[in-house]
Amino acid sequence: MTSRLRPVQPGRATLVAVLDIGSTKICCVIARLVPRAEGKALKGRTHQAEVVGFGYGPAAGVKSGVVTDIDKAEQAIRNVVGMAERAAGLTLESVLVNVTAGRLGSETFSAAVSLDGQEVEKSDIFRVLKAVNSRSVRPERSIVHALPIGYALDGQKGIRDPKGMVGEKLGVDVAVVSAETLAMRNLELVLHRCHLQIEALVATPYASGLATLVDDEAQLGVACVDFGGATTTVSVFNDGHMVYADAIAIGGHHLTLDIARQLSVSVADAERLKTFHGSVLPGQADEREMISIQPVGASHDEAPGQIPRAVLTRIMRPRIEEILTAIRDRMQATGMMDVCGRRFVLTGGASEMTGLPEVARRILARNVRNGRPMGISGLPDIAKGAAFATMAGMLVYPQVCAQEYVEPRSVRKLTGTDGYIARVGNWLRTSF
């Protein structure tokens, strides 16, 4: 299941289609990647994305990144992809898709091969990566990304590219992001029903980090937290590479459901209250400021109820603290709190809540800033916010996917004892 995507060639323009399947929204973008001059900002990017087609709609049949109703999910994806195709004036055959489902997890594996004092060649790098791959494969989980973090020659760490160097022993550390195979199979099934091939799967936290982090942050150590609709994902970058990814199945939609239950209003009204009046920091005037609410099942001629704004804050705050505490505890348990340095970047739709950076600063005890996708032109105004960070990151991904390890494709033999023609002949002999 690892990436089959061919990296974009430097100096050549290419078309890319990405599909962001979330729990609350589905979004499809067709963009042209145009070569850009090497600038001071965003050094790793060789191309600039110019959007030519954009489609956007509510999600259906998907919960926490997992397909729950295949027919509804197919219809929602068809509608959104159709919008993007009409805007761009072309038909899609394959797309890049994000993965949040299947309990995303990451581990770091190490392996070493002997060189016998020879120069390091491409085949040696391939051998050591293959050794890591054979150790990290498990039947129930599929690898989404295998990212070499750093090489070591004779125990000397911190080598970026060992090709052409001389040594006795070549080692490598690889960050492997994996997800449950069955959850990804169902995603593939839905897209096949929409007549779309998966060109590559991109882990949501990796994509969000690619879109919102600046070079210096990724170099010094930073954690990117993506507050989605029903999942919150975390990625940690250090020394320019992603070293850790994780996902928690709580998101912004759970806040909406909390408000709907506590105030007994409809989910649509709860979403509106959260967006317009919601805050996770108590304000001075909150006790005096009244908000009108329409209880579920109330007739139109009934007067709406009134609640102080402070009640809304008291409902939302515990859920946000729960998410941030879960992230902190997970990262401390894996030792990633030290790796991520002193900085957190918040992105995703639910990160635009009033007062969230202040609460995060207190709970995580780190510097916190809000992150928005950078370096993409031609997006409509509604798609420029933090909610579209994953989608923007998937447009960056083809420019950086060359760093990943990919299993070589097996070449289909046509002739020979185990070739395709021999097998067909064998089948004909034994069957009839």
From TrEMBL:
Gene Ontology, cellular component aspect: cell division site; cytoplasmic side of plasma membrane
Keyword vocabulary terms for this entry: Cell cycle, Cell division, Cell membrane, Membrane
Membrane-related topology note: Peripheral membrane protein
Location(s), subcellular: Cell membrane
Name of the protein this chain belongs to: Cell division protein FtsA
Top-level taxon: Bacteria
Family: Belongs to the FtsA/MreB family.
Self-association state and partner proteins as the record states: Self-interacts. Interacts with FtsZ.
Record bears the keyword Cell cycle: yes
Span of domain SHS2: 16-212
GO BP annotation list: FtsZ-dependent cytokinesis
Spans through the membrane: none
Keyword presence, Zinc: no
Physiological role: Cell division protein that is involved in the assembly of the Z ring. May serve as a membrane anchor for the Z ring.
